Structure formats: structure tokens, C-alpha cells
User: Which sequence fits this backbone?
């Protein structure tokens, strides 16, 4: 673990859609069932190590079983279906509970693009389609229905493409000069 931090010298650790162990020490899926897959890689020790080193941690998550939701563990237990089973205990300094983890990441992407004044850094709707199709073509499954249909968390892929378009437009508009137009 030390080697990872020494080599990378991270300024922050951000996790998105990464599952973490619950109160019983087991990792659960979004329906509260334990995941027994030996291929599951638990990166929660990285979050703990980052916290111990004073490195800020952020979790971008959507169901309560991902790293970061330990920050609001009691809320997850109380409000999520089977929250008592699926809630992770792994906290982060900041948790971004979102409707869809991808979209939470795109919101962070938009904020960074705005802060550095470059709306074109937000990936385009066409890039989103290409990325989604590449994941599905590589054998990835859409999470809600476990299919290779052009879906993301149960919504059509075009919805994610639209989010990218909307965020790009909002950032671009807010970077424009405010000295022209009827409202100025």
C-alpha cells in the first residue's frame, strides 16, 4: 500500500461506483445480496489508507453500497431498500449521492471544465455513445437489467448522451461574456 502512495503522490482519492464492505464485512450488490465473486477487487483499503495519510477522499455513488456511503451510513440503512444489508461502512470526506454514478462524474467533469474555462473538456454526446458501446461490446453488462442493450442503469443510452450535451451547453453558456444581450 505504501508503494502506491509513494509512487503516485495523490492529491485526492476519488472513487465512483466502487463497492465497499458492509457492517458484516461482506460486499453486497444493490439488492442487498452478498457478492461472492472472487474477481471483485476491494479498494476500500486504499480509501482507509488515504484518510490515514490526510489525503482527501471523495465517493460518487448511487445505491448506498459504494465507497463513501459510510459517511451517511444511518441514512442508507433507513432509506434504501435492504439498506441494513447493503450499506457500506466505508466513509469518505465527501460523498456525492447521485441518481446515477456516471452522471455524478459528469457533473464533476463539468465543474472542472467551468473552473478552468474550457467547456470542450466535457466529453461530447458522441463520445458518450462510443464509450458506452465499447463497454458493452467488450462484454460489460448494463447494471439494472444485466443486458448488453444500449442502456445505463435502466435508462436508454441516449439519456446519458443528453446529459453530456446539456452539461456542455450550460458550461459553455456560463463561460460567455456577460456584457451583451437583453438580460445584461
Assistant:
Amino acid at each position: 500500500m505504501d508503494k502506491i502512495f509513494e509512487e503516485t503522490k495523490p492529491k485526492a482519492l476519488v472513487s465512483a461506483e466502487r463497492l465497499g464492505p458492509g457492517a458484516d464485512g461482506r460486499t453486497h450488490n444493490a439488492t442487498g445480496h452478498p457478492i461472492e465473486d472472487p474477481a471483485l477487487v476491494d479498494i476500500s483499503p486504499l480509501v482507509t489508507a488515504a484518510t490515514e495519510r490526510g489525503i482527501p477522499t471523495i465517493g460518487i455513488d448511487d445505491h448506498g453500497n459504494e465507497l463513501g456511503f459510510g459517511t451517511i451510513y444511518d441514512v442508507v440503512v433507513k432509506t434504501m431498500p435492504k439498506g441494513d444489508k447493503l450499506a457500506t461502512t466505508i466513509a469518505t470526506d465527501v460523498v456525492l449521492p447521485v441518481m446515477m454514478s456516471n452522471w455524478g462524474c459528469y457533473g464533476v467533469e463539468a465543474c472542472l471544465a467551468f473552473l478552468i474555462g474550457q467547456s470542450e473538456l466535457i466529453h461530447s454526446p458522441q463520445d458518450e455513445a462510443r464509450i458506452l458501446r465499447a463497454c458493452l461490446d467488450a462484454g460489460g453488462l448494463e447494471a439494472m437489467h444485466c443486458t448488453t442493450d444500449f442502456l445505463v442503469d435502466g435508462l436508454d443510452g441516449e439519456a446519458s448522451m443528453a446529459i453530456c450535451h446539456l452539461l456542455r451547453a450550460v458550461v459553455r453558456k456560463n463561460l460567455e461574456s456577460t456584457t451583451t444581450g437583453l438580460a445584461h
The chain has a mean pLDDT of 93.
